[in-house]
Each structure stands twice: as structure tokens, then as C-alpha cells.
Write a structure and sequence with these properties.
The complex is a heterodimer of chains A (84) and B (362). By secondary structure, chain A is of the alpha+beta class. Chain A has one helix and five strands. Helix content of chain B is 39%, strand content 19%. Chain B contains 16 helices and eleven strands. Classes of the chains: A alpha+beta (84), B alpha/beta (362).
């Protein structure tokens, strides 16, 4: 039910904050979503969309952190393997 | 899809799993709150990658599953009325009420329609002034901003033929209810990422302090879930109990403030009955006084219904993490997704349906 998926904002229409809509590209499938709750979002941003509403803007730096952490674990593992 | 596929990498998942194995020295019981996470865990076999000492229990975070029987019965009664167009998210249609379900009402001529967004229901109301358009407003904090906006826009447009049957539920009071139960076995929580995208995670600090239990805000892809579990295990193994955020690409500490503001304007916090669990104080959202005219309960005179749940369904024990689906005698025999006894077998996010789909031969 709380399924929400990331998509890229390809265009924005409407000036009123509460009725601002965006066309969102989900890997080639374009759907409309309300941008009422993400006033900061501009074309090109990725947003998380749930039942026709963008709920948050994807933070691209944070998105990379999990991979940075995995890299750290990997180096740690190799270090430990080297000590044995 | 960007921000999706890269979080499903099997090799990287193994890396997380190895790290969890390396760190785990004791048995730990962790609950994933959200049904979407339950579905992903069972589908991708994430639990099977974990050390035997780590038990995942599947929490009550499936709104379809916890919507009480009497609310389903009200939906059925409203949907059968000739003047009504009853609109709902698709996954509510097969949820069994006391005698039937919405799909059967539709088959008998009821005008029941699946909509993608609550705003589609508002549009229907504008286009069909002679019909009563009712939307079935279920969901957690994730969905509340969408239903709040539908009610708000209906009020702005002065629509008289739009109303909502509401069974919104809130996550933190459910965690509190679980933790305060004497049977509680949960030692750490994965909090639902999209609920926190809306609400932030400040509500969890008092819970962590009171119950000394780690709570990690976690996403929905396999790498997110494994990372979340690893963060909980790191806390448990080192004796810490803190709120941490694994899902920082979508969740900030304060959450989505414009969404919270509209939810607060349109709704008020109310006590709510959870199917299989019972009434939890301050655990739901109902319409605020200013918007009472949009309350389908009042419009159709259906308040104060109470219905008992079928005795042979153990969904309540499953939602509290006290039993696993395959421990139910009806599982896969008298109770299947085609003929469900209880809601946890209906929704793809319900623990029983997930086990039926992916684990029947286990």
C-alpha cells in the first residue's frame, strides 16, 4: 500500500502551489503526479511518487552512501582476510 | 530504473549478508513494520540470507490487512446503493467483509471503480453531479497527504456529492501498542521508509528512549532492507538503542512539512480499531470538524457498527508477530488468496499472502 517509486520530473504545469502538476518518467512510462507537497522540485529532479503525489525529492548524494558503505565493508573484509 | 535497480544487486546483497553474519553473536528478533518490506523480504528471500539467530517478524504495516471488518461491511453497504459510485485503491476490492467483498458487489451491479489517486475520485464527483462519489480512504501516513488533498480540494470546489469512508491508521501508536504488550518479543524495528518520508522520524525518539529499542528508518529494496537489518544488528550487538535513518535518499528528520500541514488541517487524531489487533488509542485519522460534511460514515448514517472477526483466522497473532502464517491450520487449505478468511491473505503485502505466493513448498 505504501508503495512509492522514483521517477524523473520531465515537465511541470500550473503556478498555484496546491495544484502544481508534473509529468513523471518512470523508465519510459509517463504519468502525472501532483507536486503540491514538493514546492522545491524542478524539471530534472527525481521524486518518490505515491498514489499520484510526489512525497519527496530523491537526494542523489544520500543515494550513493549505501554503495560507499558497501565499499568500506569490502575493504575491511579484504584487510581481515589479509591478516589471516 | 534509476534509484531502483541498483538496490537489487545480488552480489552487493551478499556483501551485506556476510557483514551481518560476521557481526551477529546472539539471537535477535527484529520486526519490519511495513507490509511492503514484508513482501520484498519474502519475495527476494532476504530472511534466508540472514544468520539463523536473526528472526524477522512481520508487523502490522499493511493498511488493507488492518482495516476492521465493520469498515469493510460499511464499504459494501455504501457501494451497493444505486446512487453511489464507490471508488477505491485496487487492493481493497477482494478484502472479505462479513458476507461478501467489493468485487462481488460490483458483479451484482454496484458501481465500484478502482482509481489510481484520490484526486481521480474528486474529478469523478465534478463530472457526475447526479451521483454520490465515495472514496475508500485507507492507508498509513504515506497515503494521508493524498486523501487530505482530495477532501481539501472537494471543499474548495464546494462539492456536495463527494465523501470519504476513512480508516486511516498511524504507525507510532501501533509500535507503542506492540512494545507495551507483555508478549512482545521485538528487540529492534525497521521503520517504514515512506511513512517517514511524510512524517520524518522525530516521533520515534520517545519510543526508543522509553523501550530501549533500536529503530532504523528503512527503504524497500533488498539492499535497503539488508542495510537496515545490519544497522539494527550493529546497535543490538553494541548495546545501543537509537533512531537511525538508512533511507536518507528519501527521508529527512523533519519529513515533508507541507504534507504534514495539510494532513493536520483536514484530519484529527482519533482512536482506531485495527483488524486482528483491537482498538489502539490515538492510532487513526478522522476528518476534522470543519470537514465533517465529507464523512461518508455520517452521510450514510453508518456510525456505531461493530462486527466480530471469524474465529478460525489467526491474523491478529500474525500481525503481532506471535505466529507465522504456516502455523495456521487454515493456511493454504481453507484460506487461500482466492478464498481468504482474513485480510492478511488478501493483500500482496499481507504476511499470509506473501508466504502463500513464495513459500508454500518451504
Amino acid at each position: 500500500m505504501c508503495l512509492a517509486i522514483p521517477g524523473k520530473v520531465v515537465s511541470i504545469s500550473g503556478d498555484d502551489a496546491l495544484t502544481r502538476m508534473g509529468k513523471i518518467d518512470f523508465s519510459g512510462v509517463i504519468k502525472q503526479a501532483s507536486l503540491a507537497y514538493v514546492p522545491e522540485v524542478v524539471v530534472g529532479d527525481y521524486v518518490i511518487v505515491h498514489v499520484g503525489f510526489a512525497l519527496s525529492k530523491v537526494d542523489e548524494d544520500e543515494a550513493q552512501k549505501v554503495f560507499g558503505y558497501l565499499k568500506q565493508i569490502g575493504e575491511l573484509g579484504e584487510l581481515e582476510a589479509g591478516e589471516k | 530504473m534509476k534509484f531502483l535497480d541498483e538496490y537489487r544487486d545480488a552480489e552487493l546483497a551478499q556483501k551485506f549478508a556476510r557483514e551481518i553474519h560476521r557481526l551477529t553473536t546472539k539471537p535477535w528478533t527484529i520486526m519490519e513494520v511495513c507490509g511492503g518490506q514484508t513482501h520484498a523480504i519474502v519475495k527476494f528471500g532476504i530472511d534466508e540470507l540472514l544468520p539463523k539467530q536473526i528472526e524477522l517478524i512481520h508487523g502490522p504495516g499493511c493498511p488493507v490487512c488492518v482495516t476492521p471488518l465493520e469498515v469493510i461491511d460499511k464499504a459494501l453497504e455504501i457501494a451497493a446503493r444505486p446512487e453511489v459510485v464507490f471508488t477505491s485503491f485496487g487492493d481493497m476490492l477482494r478484502v472479505p467483509g462479513s458476507t461478501t467483498d467489493l468485487l462481488s458487489v460490483k458483479a451484482k451491479g454496484g458501481d465500484v471503480r478502482i482509481v489510481y489517486s484520490p484526486l481521480d475520485a474528486v474529478k469523478l464527483a465534478e463530472e457526475n453531479p447526479a451521483k454520490e462519489i465515495v472514496f475508500f480512504g485507507v492507508g498509513f501516513e504515506t497515503t494521508a497527504p493524498a486523501t487530505a488533498m482530495a477532501v481539501y480540494q472537494a471543499a474548495q470546489k464546494k462539492l456536495k456529492n463527494f465523501s470519504m469512508l476513512i480508516s486511516h491508521v498511524l504507525v507510532p501508536p501501533a509500535i507503542e501498542a506492540l512494545m507495551s504488550s507483555p508478549n512482545c518479543r521485538v528487540q529492534g524495528f525497521l521503520a517504514a521508509g515512506h511513512v517517514c518520508a511524510v512524517m520524518g522520524y522525530e516521533e520515534y525518539f520517545p519510543l526508543v528512549k522509553k523501550y530501549r529499542v533500536p529503530i532504523v528508518v528503512t527503504g524497500f529494496e533488498p539492499l535497503d532492507i539488508l542495510h537496515g537489518i545490519l544497522m539494527v544488528v550493529q546497535q543490538l550487538e553494541s548495546g545501543r538503542a537509537e533512531v537511525e535513518n538508512q533511507y536518507a535518499r528519501a527521508v529527512t528528520r523533519a519529513g515533508n512539512q507541507p504534507a504534514q500541514a495539510l494532513v493536520k488541517k483536514v484530519f484529527q487524531v482519533v482512536p482506531r480499531k485495527w483488524r486482528g489487533v483491537g482498538e489502539i488509542p490515538q492510532s487513526g485519522l478522522g476528518l476534522a470538524g470543519e470537514y465533517a460534511a465529507f464523512d461518508a460514515d455520517k452521510k450514510f448514517g453508518l456510525t456505531d457498527r461493530r462486527v466480530d472477526e471469524p474465529a478460525e483466522c489467526i491474523a491478529g497473532l500474525i500481525l503481532q508477530g506471535l505466529k507465522k502464517p504456516h502455523e495456521c491450520p487454515a493456511f493454504g487449505t481453507k484460506c487461500t488468496p482466492e478464498h481468504p478468511l482474513g485480510a492478511t491473505m488478501v493483500s500482496s503485502e499481507g504476511a499470509c499472502a506473501a508466504y502463500y505466493r513464495y513459500r508454500r513448498h518451504a
